[in-house]
Amino acid sequence: MISSIVIGCAVGLILLEGGQASSFGINATVMDVQWSRDDVFRRMSGMEESSLFTSLSPVLGFHYLLGLSSSFPDDLEVNQQCRELLHIFAQRCISYVDCLLQFARPVRICQNCYSEIESLNNTYTNISKENTGNVSCRNVLLRSDRLQLVSVLHRDMNVIWDTADCEKCLTFPLGSFSNDSLYFMASLNQTLSCFDKYEQQGNQSVVCKECKTTYRGLNDLYNRMEKNQTVCFDIEDAMNITRRLWSKNFNCSFPREEIVPVIAVSSFMLFLPIIFYLSSFLHSEQKKRRLILPKRAKSSTSVMNIQDRHS
């Protein structure tokens, strides 16, 4: 009974210290009871180990037993070499995720995270080999349970890389930017430098005037790369940001070349009914004239014939 009270007080003091104590339903005056934490643990230290575990079992014993049983003999199926591969794979995942988050905004993952994804895939390839020593790490780490955590992580990591279309703007096996991508980045830097230069003057119209040629060249280059399917998400995101700066921040615009044919076709379709009805009207009037003229000519000749007979 005393041990239960001591354990209850110890748990209560610990909860109070963590700021999570609640009302115990006992109307006692705090000043009348001067328990200290040292007194509680001093009383606990005098108890026998068996009685202490018995007193703790309703609250803490279950979790304590789980901690003791956390290691199973089945873990012996994973040999040391496979454990090392698993540890390396975990480190590669951490490095890759760290790189993704570091270059998430603006997106620069294709030009900065190639070495991380390559190391991750190489480690997974080593795990997937048929035999590593006398034990197949592929069976132990990839096929031993329904969760297949290593395979799922590897797949999801590569989904991000594939979605970014990084292979469209990189050269292999070095993983560096292709010539088209490097030329685009140079044009992008030139355009942004022009923005910064004339933005400091405080007149947005100056930016629109002085940077129009540079921005148009960058936009045309991007359209060609998009047509040739050499645009990765790094370049796409950079172009989207530049277009927002041009249109929203500086309120600049210029007629795009593809709009001219649209305007021409729309204008033709707009005037087509007018042309049709006008041509129909003119054609009908001309036809009426052709029908009337022969009748007049015929009647006049008949009158002349009658006059000739009477004379």
Automatic annotation (TrEMBL):
Coiled coil: none annotated. Pfam families: OSTMP1. The chain crosses the membrane at residues 259-282. GO terms for cellular component: cytosol. Keywords: Membrane, Signal, Transmembrane, Transmembrane helix. Residues 1-21 form the signal peptide. It comes from the Eukaryota. PANTHER family: OSTEOPETROSIS ASSOCIATED TRANSMEMBRANE PROTEIN 1 (PTHR15644), OSTEOPETROSIS-ASSOCIATED TRANSMEMBRANE PROTEIN 1 (PTHR15644:SF2). This is Osteoclastosis associated transmembrane protein 1. It comes from Lepisosteus oculatus.
